[in-house]
Structures
1.
Amino acid sequence: MTRLVLATANPDKVREIEPLLTGAGVELVGVTDMVPEWEVVETGRTLEDNARLKARAAVVATGEAAVADDTGLFVTELDGAPGVRSSRFAGETATYRGNVELLLDRLRKVPQKRRKAKFRTAVVVAKPNGTERTFEGVLLGYITDSPRGDGGFGYDPVFEPCGQDLTLAELPLSVKNTMSHRARAFIALAEFLMANPDWLEVTDPPV
Ligand code: IMP
């Protein structure tokens, strides 16, 4: 198994992502298990910028290859908002509930067929030699009129994936975790690592 640092302070993310990468021979270690005080302010203008910022900060902190993800909810009728600001949509100290309430309020008069939205995840894997690769995962769906379900987190209670009658918060977590935007992005990384088994090991500076 090759070790890869996951640039997050959230142990739930390590648990969710690890099974997606084990087939590619990767063992994930949370960055805060190695450097407990690790922290990054997400100042990027895009999901890729933020994922790169976190991955590179974890490389600097640990001296090892690291991977990071960043996710946003993009609502067509709101010109792509909340997007990269999804966690802070209702303000710097916003709660999941506050964000969901603001989203439903903004869409109050919008009929069902115009409530299209997508979750998008960017994943950046970076190595100490400066090489990096970016992957993405997308999940298309609709924003519901009101929250439904107790599972998941964030905007899950108001997001119905295309082809489903249930919100992400009503679907079992095991189902969400195989179809989600985050799963798709990390599966793309796993496929890249399976096709390029030495990629993480190579330490030469990029030409
Ligand atoms: P992060 O980049 O994974 O921290 O996600 C940023 C924000 O997007 C979170 O604070 C949530 O509000 C939202 N979010 C990310 N992933 C999901 C998801 O799988 N379901 C619902 N909301 C999500």
2.
Amino acid sequence: MAGNKTLTMIKPDAVRNGHIGAITNQITEAGFRIVAMKLTQLTQNDAERFYAVHKERPFFGELVEFMTSGPIVAAILEKDNAVADFRTLIGATNPAEAAEGTIRAKYATSIGENAVHGSDSDENAKIEGDFHFAGREQFDY
Ligand code: ATP
Ligand code: MG
């Protein structure tokens, strides 16, 4: 079904700070089903490709350095209206502007180190899901 999946990464800051369990729990409590998941680490090349859309931005180097600085959890999440509902659950990019109770409000430390990623469109959710997971790692259950 189109439009029911999104790709998340629990970023290196949140993994380092011990928040994998709490964040995963908040995601599933909000009604998302985990249909793919792994602990992994991005190479420089991976991060540059994943965030290629931002390559002209002044923070690109910092973003790549941060995203490769330690393990991440990548996951594909399924729910009606997954992309938009997940972005509501995580809150604004800058945790200072993130609504109370959102994942970034609770666990992010700065605009750069902001705990989680969420896809911004159905099209990118599919591209990003396939970036991290082979077909046989994407479940339907
Ligand atoms: P994400 O794509 O990680 O879910 P987002 O969609 O909320 O975040 P984007 O505009 O796509 O935000 O930016 C991608 C990432 O780049 C942000 O999550 C953040 O880690 C980093 N970033 C964005 N703006 C800045 C900034 N002004 N300074 C430093 N890092 C930034
Ligand atoms: Mg984004």
